[in-house]
Amino acid sequence: MFDKPHRISTDEIAEQATLYCLGDFSPEERKRYEEHLSSCAVCRAAVEDSSAVIAEIALADPREPSKEARTAFLNRVHNEKIKGRLWAKLIGVLITPQLSARPSRRKNRVQLGKAVKMLESKLSGSEQELLDALVQAALKLCNAGTAGFSVLYEDEQVFRWDALAGALMAARGGTTPRTWSPCGTTLDLGRPQLFSHPSRCFEYFKDAPQPISEGLVVPVYIGAKPLGTLWVASHDDRKFDKEDLQVLQSFADFCGTAVGIIRERQVKLASKARD
Ligand SMILES: [Zn+2]
């Protein structure tokens, strides 16, 4: 297929570029591909995108609590060469580096401050009430199609959508696998990630009543322990930006602390009840 230059980018072109960047080509394939690159701007752009994502994944900060998860992730990529196409698909939908290049909306700290105050008032209630309020606020402030909170259930190795607001609300209680999902990838990489048309990689999203155009996913921790992820999705041409990331990150930081407090209180209440 790479005998002549092409004008439009496709999934297959992205996949080929990623396989090339991951070093999955034989020397012959490599040579042929590089010859093609010299005359095809579309593929050159795809290679640039892929290498930006791969660099982003490889840049580990040893001080981060998530370093272990990322090392495990990179080991899996390395050891499962046979699944090279799967990894290529994953890298094809990860567009996190684009976030920093996009023009950003004006900051609205007043609105964010109000939302955090509202969430603080939920601290005396249950964890579910807090998560419900959290996804409602994320939906509104990020002007998203759907907002959700995926809680990690380690024993079952799944994420469960324990709170959802917006278009996909009816999917509440649904699960995605820990090892193969945008939430899982985000926890593996230990930092926020932006996905473009994730159903190209995570095929179960093809059954969603509304296709997802973009998903911005932020990891949430209680201390160093992963609680899950907070995310927003768009179902149209809405593109998320740095301001959306800032909002979600503020909510995620607050949520980790707040759920920690609520759970601690429950433990105390339970032990009091036993006494
Ligand atoms: Zn090409």
- The radius of gyration over CA amounts to 20 Å
Helix content: 40-55%
Low-confidence stretches: none
> What is the number of helices?
10
CATH architecture of the largest domain: 2-Layer Sandwich
- Molecules bound to protein: zinc ion
Largest sheet, in brief, is: 6 strands, antiparallel
Which sequence of SSEs, written as H and E, runs from N to C? HHHHHHHHEEEHEEEH
Coarse morphology: elongated
State the total count of DSSP E strands: 6
Instruction: Describe the strand arrangement of the main beta sheet, using strand numbers.
Output: 3-2-1-6-5-4
Coarse structural class? alpha+beta
Protein model, in words:
The chain is an alpha+beta fold. The protein has two domains: 11-92, no CATH class; 100-273, 2-Layer Sandwich (Beta-Lactamase). 49% of the residues lie in helices and 16% in strands. It contains ten helices and six strands; from the N terminus they run ααααααααβββαβββα. It has helices spanning 11-21, 27-37, 41-58, 67-79, 84-93, 98-101, 109-120, 127-141, 182-189, 242-274; strands spanning 146-153, 158-166, 175-177, 193-196, 214-222, 225-234. The chain has a six-stranded antiparallel β-sheet with strand order 3-2-1-6-5-4, sandwiched between helices. A hairpin with a 4-residue loop joins β1 (146-153) and β2. α1 packs across α5 (84-93), α4 packs across α9 and α7 packs antiparallel against α8 (127-141). It is elongated. 36% of the residues are buried. The site of zinc ion (ZN) has 7 residues, from α3.
